[in-house]
Amino acid sequence: EAQVTQNPRYLITVTGKKLTVTCSQNMNHEYMSWYRQDPGLGLRQIYYSMNVEVTDKGDVPEGYKVSRKEKRNFPLILESPSPNQTSLYFCASRRNGGEQYFGPGTRLTVT
Amino acid sequence: SQQGEEDPQALSIQEGENATMNCSYKTSINNLQWYRQNSGRGLVHLILIRSNEREKHSGRLRVTLDTSKKSSSLLITASRAADTASYFCATDLSNFGNEKLTFGTGTRLTIIP
Questions:
Q1: pLDDT at B71 over 60
Q2: In which band, very low, low, confident or very high, does the pLDDT at B3 lie, cut at 50, 70 and 90?
Q3: Which of A14, A29, A60, A89 sits CB 3.0–4.6 Å from A93 for a disulfide?
């Protein structure tokens, strides 16, 4: 089954404690993205990758890192999480010009 | 402000009625896509319309695109309670060197049984 998986689905952590949210897709898509969704603000792109070892900033990259060492994986790293990073996070993938496939979401709370 | 702006922000209709949502955007696009999101879940792709297309159908969905007005509409006919969800338009601005699929803030649709 074609899908994007992300883990964990729920995470509560404390300020400053490094965390990683994993993302994997099985569709051999070139493009992968991370979004955050906040009430009233819609989805905002954090980072994207157009292929292995090619990543770039989206609209709200501050406080986040990503890597793309393999085509299928695109982890999101928060080196020092802060409360303003409490949000619902989505990983997504697609082919150039195609539809976006979304993961199920990770609800992160930073206290 | 967002590249894509949906209108209205919220819509409540009786089951069986048609629902229309609009999306306006600012710059030239490669294509425009509509997505649906059930509460707290991942977005699901509904339909993609390319910049050289004017209308597209998929089941009970009809999407139009007017590039001269930089606007699109999503029509859901014969609505059902299961159509209750948030609907987002996304404008594809991707070109060589970047990946830019920008989402609006969505229309919250409620179907009243």
A1: yes
A2: low
A3: A29
Question: Left (φ > 0), alpha (ψ -120 to 50) or beta: where does B81 sit?
Answer: alpha
Amino acid at residue number A40: G
Give the whole-angstrom CA distance, residue B12 versus residue B88. Answer: 16
| Chain B residues within 8 Å of chain A (Cβ atoms) | 2, 30-31, 33, 35, 40-45, 48, 88, 90, 92, 94, 97-106
Express each pLDDT in B23-47 by its tens digit: 999 988 889 999 999 988 889 999 9
Q: What is the CA radius of gyration of chain B?
A: 14
Q: How far apart are alpha carbons B45 and A102 in whole angstroms?
A: 9
Token pair of B32 as six digits: 């425009």
**Would you state the structure tokens that stand for residue B74, as one six-digit string?**
């999503």
Give me the mean pLDDT over the A49-53 stretch: 93
Q: Which amino acid is at B10?
A: A
